Amino acid sequence: MTSPGTGVGHGKLILCGEHAVVYGHPALAFAVTLSTTVQLRPHQGPTVIDSPHADPRVRDALCTVLPTEGIRAFVRTEVPVGRGMGSSAALAVAVVRAQHPELEGQALIDAAMPIERAFHGNPSGLDVAVSALGGGLSFRKGPPMEMQPLELGDWHIVVLDSGSPGDTRAQVAGVAARRPDIDVHLERIGALVAEARNVLHDAPALGALLDENHALLRAIGVSTPALDDLVDMARGAGALGAKLAGAGGGGVVLALCADPTPVLDAARARGIAALPARPAPRHGAHP
Ligand code: PMV
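^ Those are the sequences you sent over. The predicted structure of the assembly is below.
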Protein backbone atom coordinates (compact mmCIF):
# COMPACT_ATOMS: atom_id res chain seq x y z
CA MET A 1 0.00 0.00 0.00
CA THR A 2 1.17 3.53 -0.70
CA SER A 3 -0.03 6.70 1.10
CA PRO A 4 -2.40 9.18 -0.68
CA GLY A 5 -0.54 11.26 -3.26
CA THR A 6 2.15 8.61 -3.64
CA GLY A 7 2.70 6.50 -6.76
CA VAL A 8 5.17 3.75 -7.69
CA GLY A 9 6.42 2.63 -11.12
CA HIS A 10 8.71 -0.30 -11.80
CA GLY A 11 11.81 -0.41 -13.94
CA LYS A 12 12.02 -3.04 -16.67
CA LEU A 13 14.34 -5.19 -18.72
CA ILE A 14 13.76 -5.99 -22.39
CA LEU A 15 14.41 -9.69 -22.89
CA CYS A 16 14.41 -9.27 -26.66
CA GLY A 17 13.08 -6.99 -29.39
CA GLU A 18 14.24 -3.44 -28.50
CA HIS A 19 14.47 -1.01 -31.43
CA ALA A 20 12.56 -3.37 -33.75
CA VAL A 21 9.55 -2.74 -31.47
CA VAL A 22 9.58 0.92 -32.56
CA TYR A 23 8.78 -0.32 -36.12
CA GLY A 24 5.85 -2.54 -35.17
CA HIS A 25 7.68 -5.78 -34.38
CA PRO A 26 6.91 -7.59 -31.10
CA ALA A 27 9.12 -7.45 -27.99
CA LEU A 28 9.29 -9.39 -24.72
CA ALA A 29 10.05 -7.64 -21.45
CA PHE A 30 9.48 -7.88 -17.73
CA ALA A 31 9.13 -5.45 -14.85
CA VAL A 32 11.88 -5.59 -12.23
CA THR A 33 11.53 -5.05 -8.49
CA LEU A 34 13.57 -1.81 -8.64
CA SER A 35 11.11 1.10 -8.62
CA THR A 36 10.59 4.86 -8.65
CA THR A 37 8.34 6.59 -6.13
CA VAL A 38 6.73 10.00 -6.59
CA GLN A 39 5.08 11.73 -3.66
CA LEU A 40 2.94 14.84 -4.29
CA ARG A 41 2.33 17.30 -1.44
CA PRO A 42 0.44 20.62 -1.36
CA HIS A 43 2.79 23.61 -1.47
CA GLN A 44 2.43 27.42 -1.57
CA GLY A 45 3.68 28.95 -4.82
CA PRO A 46 5.01 27.53 -8.08
CA THR A 47 5.31 23.74 -8.36
CA VAL A 48 8.69 22.42 -7.18
CA ILE A 49 10.34 19.13 -8.22
CA ASP A 50 12.55 17.63 -5.52
CA SER A 51 14.64 14.99 -7.32
CA PRO A 52 18.13 13.63 -6.62
CA HIS A 53 18.75 13.78 -10.40
CA ALA A 54 19.82 17.11 -11.83
CA ASP A 55 18.52 16.04 -15.28
CA PRO A 56 16.28 18.95 -16.46
CA ARG A 57 14.18 16.43 -18.41
CA VAL A 58 12.74 15.17 -15.09
CA ARG A 59 11.28 18.61 -14.40
CA ASP A 60 10.18 19.13 -18.01
CA ALA A 61 8.53 15.70 -18.14
CA LEU A 62 6.69 16.10 -14.82
CA CYS A 63 5.52 19.58 -15.83
CA THR A 64 3.63 18.01 -18.73
CA VAL A 65 1.12 16.61 -16.18
CA LEU A 66 1.48 18.60 -12.94
CA PRO A 67 -0.19 21.99 -12.38
CA THR A 68 2.22 24.93 -12.58
CA GLU A 69 1.31 26.01 -9.02
CA GLY A 70 0.71 24.38 -5.67
CA ILE A 71 2.62 21.05 -5.68
CA ARG A 72 5.92 19.82 -4.28
CA ALA A 73 6.86 16.52 -5.98
CA PHE A 74 9.41 14.28 -4.26
CA VAL A 75 11.05 11.82 -6.67
CA ARG A 76 13.06 8.88 -5.34
CA THR A 77 14.31 6.02 -7.51
CA GLU A 78 16.16 2.72 -7.27
CA VAL A 79 16.11 2.34 -11.06
CA PRO A 80 19.52 3.20 -12.51
CA VAL A 81 19.11 6.26 -14.75
CA GLY A 82 20.09 6.06 -18.43
CA ARG A 83 20.92 2.35 -18.21
CA GLY A 84 18.17 0.91 -20.43
CA MET A 85 16.12 -0.13 -17.40
CA GLY A 86 13.15 2.12 -18.04
CA SER A 87 13.77 4.86 -15.47
CA SER A 88 11.76 7.45 -17.42
CA ALA A 89 8.77 5.11 -17.82
CA ALA A 90 8.93 4.24 -14.11
CA LEU A 91 8.83 7.96 -13.33
CA ALA A 92 5.92 8.50 -15.72
CA VAL A 93 3.87 5.66 -14.21
CA ALA A 94 4.72 6.74 -10.66
CA VAL A 95 3.55 10.34 -11.12
CA VAL A 96 0.33 9.30 -12.85
CA ARG A 97 -0.40 6.82 -10.05
CA ALA A 98 0.30 9.55 -7.48
CA GLN A 99 -2.24 11.85 -9.17
CA HIS A 100 -4.80 9.26 -10.29
CA PRO A 101 -4.65 6.11 -8.14
CA GLU A 102 -7.87 4.90 -9.79
CA LEU A 103 -6.24 4.48 -13.21
CA GLU A 104 -5.19 0.99 -14.29
CA GLY A 105 -4.21 -0.90 -17.42
CA GLN A 106 -4.57 0.93 -20.75
CA ALA A 107 -5.89 4.13 -19.09
CA LEU A 108 -2.77 4.31 -16.89
CA ILE A 109 -0.52 3.63 -19.91
CA ASP A 110 -2.27 6.32 -21.97
CA ALA A 111 -1.92 8.88 -19.18
CA ALA A 112 1.81 8.11 -18.71
CA MET A 113 2.75 8.16 -22.42
CA PRO A 114 2.99 11.98 -22.78
CA ILE A 115 5.58 12.02 -19.99
CA GLU A 116 7.61 9.25 -21.68
CA ARG A 117 7.36 11.19 -24.96
CA ALA A 118 8.79 14.28 -23.25
CA PHE A 119 11.90 12.18 -22.55
CA HIS A 120 12.26 10.10 -25.69
CA GLY A 121 10.37 11.72 -28.52
CA ASN A 122 8.88 8.65 -30.20
CA PRO A 123 8.76 5.79 -27.68
CA SER A 124 7.09 2.50 -28.59
CA GLY A 125 5.23 2.43 -25.27
CA LEU A 126 6.85 -0.86 -24.25
CA ASP A 127 8.57 0.58 -21.17
CA VAL A 128 5.44 2.34 -19.93
CA ALA A 129 3.28 -0.75 -20.52
CA VAL A 130 5.66 -3.02 -18.61
CA SER A 131 6.05 -0.53 -15.77
CA ALA A 132 2.27 -0.10 -15.50
CA LEU A 133 1.28 -3.76 -15.77
CA GLY A 134 4.18 -5.49 -13.97
CA GLY A 135 5.18 -9.11 -14.58
CA GLY A 136 6.30 -10.39 -17.99
CA LEU A 137 4.81 -8.91 -21.15
CA SER A 138 4.64 -9.62 -24.86
CA PHE A 139 4.11 -6.25 -26.54
CA ARG A 140 3.39 -4.83 -29.97
CA LYS A 141 3.16 -1.09 -30.51
CA GLY A 142 0.01 -0.85 -32.61
CA PRO A 143 -2.21 1.18 -32.49
CA PRO A 144 -3.90 -0.42 -30.73
CA MET A 145 -1.12 -1.72 -28.45
CA GLU A 146 -1.15 -5.53 -28.23
CA MET A 147 -0.20 -6.84 -24.81
CA GLN A 148 -0.23 -10.35 -23.43
CA PRO A 149 1.05 -11.45 -20.02
CA LEU A 150 4.04 -13.81 -20.17
CA GLU A 151 4.89 -16.64 -17.81
CA LEU A 152 8.67 -16.46 -17.48
CA GLY A 153 10.80 -19.59 -17.16
CA ASP A 154 12.61 -20.52 -13.94
CA TRP A 155 15.92 -19.12 -15.19
CA HIS A 156 17.84 -16.20 -13.67
CA ILE A 157 18.85 -12.86 -15.14
CA VAL A 158 22.03 -11.06 -14.09
CA VAL A 159 22.35 -7.37 -15.02
CA LEU A 160 25.86 -6.11 -15.79
CA ASP A 161 26.41 -2.36 -15.84
CA SER A 162 28.75 -0.88 -18.46
CA GLY A 163 29.17 2.14 -16.16
CA SER A 164 28.19 4.64 -18.84
CA PRO A 165 24.73 5.96 -19.70
CA GLY A 166 23.00 5.48 -23.02
CA ASP A 167 20.81 8.15 -24.60
CA THR A 168 17.61 6.47 -25.76
CA ARG A 169 16.46 9.38 -27.91
CA ALA A 170 19.83 9.53 -29.73
CA GLN A 171 20.02 5.74 -30.22
CA VAL A 172 16.47 5.56 -31.60
CA ALA A 173 17.27 8.48 -33.95
CA GLY A 174 20.51 6.73 -35.04
CA VAL A 175 18.60 3.56 -35.93
CA ALA A 176 16.02 5.60 -37.86
CA ALA A 177 18.83 7.27 -39.84
CA ARG A 178 20.35 3.88 -40.79
CA ARG A 179 17.10 2.60 -42.27
CA PRO A 180 16.23 1.15 -44.74
CA ASP A 181 19.66 -0.57 -44.97
CA ILE A 182 19.19 -2.22 -41.57
CA ASP A 183 15.53 -3.23 -42.02
CA VAL A 184 16.56 -6.81 -42.70
CA HIS A 185 18.06 -6.94 -39.19
CA LEU A 186 14.99 -5.35 -37.61
CA GLU A 187 12.82 -7.94 -39.32
CA ARG A 188 15.01 -10.79 -38.08
CA ILE A 189 14.76 -9.35 -34.53
CA GLY A 190 10.96 -9.45 -34.87
CA ALA A 191 11.04 -13.09 -36.03
CA LEU A 192 13.45 -14.03 -33.26
CA VAL A 193 11.09 -12.57 -30.64
CA ALA A 194 8.29 -14.81 -31.92
CA GLU A 195 10.64 -17.80 -31.58
CA ALA A 196 11.73 -16.71 -28.09
CA ARG A 197 8.13 -16.61 -26.95
CA ASN A 198 7.83 -20.32 -27.76
CA VAL A 199 10.96 -21.31 -25.83
CA LEU A 200 10.58 -19.24 -22.66
CA HIS A 201 10.83 -22.41 -20.59
CA ASP A 202 13.77 -23.86 -22.56
CA ALA A 203 16.66 -21.80 -21.18
CA PRO A 204 19.42 -23.04 -23.57
CA ALA A 205 17.22 -22.34 -26.64
CA LEU A 206 16.24 -18.95 -25.25
CA GLY A 207 19.89 -18.16 -24.51
CA ALA A 208 20.90 -18.88 -28.12
CA LEU A 209 18.22 -16.44 -29.32
CA LEU A 210 19.44 -13.75 -26.90
CA ASP A 211 22.97 -14.20 -28.31
CA GLU A 212 21.60 -13.76 -31.81
CA ASN A 213 19.63 -10.70 -30.68
CA HIS A 214 22.86 -9.12 -29.41
CA ALA A 215 24.59 -9.77 -32.75
CA LEU A 216 21.67 -8.06 -34.51
CA LEU A 217 21.77 -5.09 -32.12
CA ARG A 218 25.47 -4.76 -33.00
CA ALA A 219 24.57 -4.93 -36.67
CA ILE A 220 22.11 -2.04 -36.32
CA GLY A 221 24.81 0.01 -34.62
CA VAL A 222 23.64 0.33 -31.00
CA SER A 223 26.23 -1.77 -29.18
CA THR A 224 29.59 -0.51 -27.88
CA PRO A 225 32.93 -2.27 -27.20
CA ALA A 226 32.16 -2.12 -23.45
CA LEU A 227 28.77 -3.82 -23.95
CA ASP A 228 30.33 -6.45 -26.25
CA ASP A 229 32.98 -7.16 -23.57
CA LEU A 230 30.30 -7.66 -20.91
CA VAL A 231 28.42 -10.05 -23.20
CA ASP A 232 31.63 -12.05 -23.81
CA MET A 233 32.47 -12.08 -20.10
CA ALA A 234 29.00 -13.36 -19.17
CA ARG A 235 29.14 -16.12 -21.77
CA GLY A 236 32.67 -17.04 -20.63
CA ALA A 237 31.37 -17.37 -17.07
CA GLY A 238 28.65 -19.81 -18.13
CA ALA A 239 25.67 -17.64 -19.09
CA LEU A 240 23.31 -19.39 -21.51
CA GLY A 241 23.00 -16.17 -23.52
CA ALA A 242 23.63 -12.45 -23.11
CA LYS A 243 22.68 -9.21 -24.85
CA LEU A 244 22.56 -5.51 -24.31
CA ALA A 245 19.19 -4.47 -22.90
CA GLY A 246 17.42 -1.20 -23.74
CA ALA A 247 18.48 1.37 -26.27
CA GLY A 248 22.24 0.67 -26.08
CA GLY A 249 25.11 3.10 -26.63
CA GLY A 250 25.85 2.41 -22.94
CA GLY A 251 23.64 1.05 -20.18
CA VAL A 252 23.39 -2.60 -19.22
CA VAL A 253 23.76 -6.14 -20.49
CA LEU A 254 21.45 -8.91 -19.33
CA ALA A 255 22.75 -12.45 -18.97
CA LEU A 256 20.43 -15.47 -18.90
CA CYS A 257 21.73 -18.02 -16.40
CA ALA A 258 20.74 -21.38 -14.98
CA ASP A 259 22.87 -20.39 -11.95
CA PRO A 260 23.64 -16.68 -11.49
CA THR A 261 26.56 -17.12 -9.05
CA PRO A 262 29.46 -17.69 -11.52
CA VAL A 263 28.44 -14.66 -13.61
CA LEU A 264 28.03 -12.46 -10.51
CA ASP A 265 31.42 -13.66 -9.20
CA ALA A 266 33.17 -13.06 -12.56
CA ALA A 267 31.72 -9.55 -12.76
CA ARG A 268 32.67 -8.65 -9.20
CA ALA A 269 36.21 -10.00 -9.71
CA ARG A 270 36.56 -7.45 -12.53
CA GLY A 271 34.99 -4.62 -10.55
CA ILE A 272 31.86 -4.60 -12.71
CA ALA A 273 28.60 -3.64 -10.99
CA ALA A 274 26.30 -6.66 -11.28
CA LEU A 275 22.97 -7.55 -9.73
CA PRO A 276 20.43 -10.34 -10.04
CA ALA A 277 17.18 -8.98 -11.54
CA ARG A 278 13.99 -10.20 -9.96
CA PRO A 279 10.68 -9.87 -11.87
CA ALA A 280 8.13 -7.60 -10.19
CA PRO A 281 4.64 -9.07 -9.72
CA ARG A 282 1.84 -8.34 -12.18
CA HIS A 283 -0.61 -5.54 -11.25
CA GLY A 284 -4.31 -6.19 -11.73
CA ALA A 285 -5.96 -7.37 -14.94
CA HIS A 286 -4.34 -6.99 -18.35
CA PRO A 287 -6.09 -4.69 -20.83
O1 PMV B 1 16.67 2.46 -23.08
P1 PMV B 1 15.26 2.30 -22.66
O2 PMV B 1 15.08 1.63 -21.34
O3 PMV B 1 14.51 3.61 -22.69
O4 PMV B 1 14.55 1.33 -23.72
C1 PMV B 1 14.35 1.77 -25.05
C2 PMV B 1 13.69 0.71 -25.88
C3 PMV B 1 13.66 1.04 -27.38
O5 PMV B 1 13.06 -0.08 -28.04
C4 PMV B 1 15.05 1.25 -27.96
C5 PMV B 1 12.82 2.30 -27.67
C6 PMV B 1 11.33 2.13 -27.46
O6 PMV B 1 10.66 3.17 -27.41
O7 PMV B 1 10.82 1.00 -27.39
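The chain has two domains: 6-150, 156-277. The pocket of PMV is lined by residues 18-19, 21-22, 84-86, 120, 123-124, 126-127, 168, 172, 246-247 (CB under 6 Å).

Shout if you want it in another format.
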